[in-house]
Amino acid sequence: MKILDRYILITFLRTFFSVFIIFMFIFILQGVWLYITELAGKDLDVSVTAKFILYYMPKLIPLVVPLTILLSSIMVFGNFAENYEFAAMKSTGISLQRAMRSLSVFIVALGIGCFFFANNVIPWGEYNFFNLRRNIAKMKPALAIAEGQFNEIGNINIKVAKKSGDRGQFLEGVVIHEKSSTRRGNFKVIVSKKGELKSSPDSNILQLELLDGNFYEEIISNDLQKNENKPHVRSYFDTYITNVDLEILNNEDLDEKSQSDRYNMLNVSQLNKYIDTLEQNQKNDYKALATTLYNRSTYASLNINIDTAKTRKNIPKDSIIIAKDLLGFYNTAQKIQILNLAINSSNSTRQILDSNKKNLEIKQVHLNKHIIVLQDKFVLAFACVILFFVGAPLGALIRRGGLGLPMVIAIVLFLTYHFFGIFAKNSAEKGSFNPIIGTWLSTAVMLPLSIYLTTRATNDKGVFEFDNIIVPLKRLFNSKQKLQLSESDTKVYNFYSKYSIEELIGIIKKQDEFDLDKKPKEIALHNLLNRNISLESLKSEGLEIPDSLIKARVLLKDYNDYSKTSLISYCIGVILLVLHFVFKNNKLPELAESGLSLSIIAFIFFVIYVIVNAFVYSKFYKTINQERKRINPLLLALTLPIYPLKYIIVRSRISQDFYLSCLQNIK
Q: Would you state the pLDDT for residue 140?
């Protein structure tokens, strides 16, 4: 390895590991904060907490490593460019690709290592982390009863509305669901107004005394006919005492690992096997559903009860019977019976389809999650390489090192990449599109960006060249009332700005109609119009101004006012409509209805002002003798959804036409 390669690699590794440790520490703190409710109040020792963090760390690698690579590459190559080290390399004939060679090998090796890490270590961490969380959740210390929520203690689920007393021993609004050892379900409920915890905090027996309450229990009989009457027992009590042995709650084995079949606990070979099994089961489910629906249609037995001899009586063999109304062969009672059977059959079939639809959707989501996790293991490896080729050339282009601008750029790029991936995966899970596409979509979006930035950095060009876009937009949107002046004309304009109104009017009057150089008049008139002087005042000063121009300027002002009001009404209507859907999705029907009503009112005002504005627009062009530019009603209706864009374009064009008309008619 040459000295240059060693220098670049060591510099990158030093930054990489520093950033990696910082990000890992931040994400671990975020994870501990996320699961703090599962750890607090459980009397866990240091070793269990350390295991919790250790098992949680592997799942952070898909987040931390790509972000670290992106930020480190921007920082390192930004430092090289800022300190003119790249300039020194290029002066000796070393290109950017040559400088990135040693790091490219390292990043590819890191990507391969990340794949094996995702295939082996992350499933191990998920397996241990899930089982450890499940075991911690079972641990309940004595008297661990929180207000306003159900707490599982032994064979009871208890909820209290309020706790009081120095030890929280006095309870109010107690609801207890007692589990049965013989059957599953909630068949026994105890409700009392008050209660008291009699045991001491250090006791292994929780004694709960309930006062002034009711006891309710459903009775389930083996005779199904008796269960139709829903028999139950209800009794009232003044005092009821129940004891719970807390010893079994504090003897949970935190090292027990009984759950091992979750999709994020499997490696590539296991995932492939599960995916094949799930796909085969899915095919069998569809086949079974099709068979069930076919059998319910009784299509195979349609001809069994038909007596062909009777039906063909007095009918030639070669003739064909065409019945337009099959029910016409039956009497009224038979018709009613046939129709009822058809309705019942169709309703039953629809119920079967609805129930199977939900079941099949759940199974499809489960299958999609397995496919996404499988593809994620490969995506992580490619993401490391692609994000490096985004960060390295970007750092060389922005020429900034340190943790300032590179940190901002890296976080923005990574958040775009990460959230784009999350939304795509969530949609893929629900079956909106193929899960493979959903998993690779965010990485595929970054691939063109990496190629583009690498090409730009290699050719010593800026990140973006906006001139080809900005200049046409400026010409389109900027009002032509503001002249596009050259450098020499700008100096003349600034010089004319010092002139008085009389001097500018004199320049305009001296302009001969046969004079080829119209610039002095154009610049002087532009200067006058920018001073917001009324045309009536200019006319009184001696300029020849047609009355039509004075009227046109009033119409122009009215048009600008009406169009601005239309734009405001449009924006308010759109915002309220969006809020309507937001409130509706968050189950706030009253606010959603109000938002919709106000949105409709805003759009009504918008349409009214647009119509008024169209009349003013047509009247303006009629005043300046350009009637061909009147508004087409069909075009007006079609452009209503994109009114803001139309507002910018038309406002600029009408100002330009007024200014050109002034140039032609003012003398």
A: 47
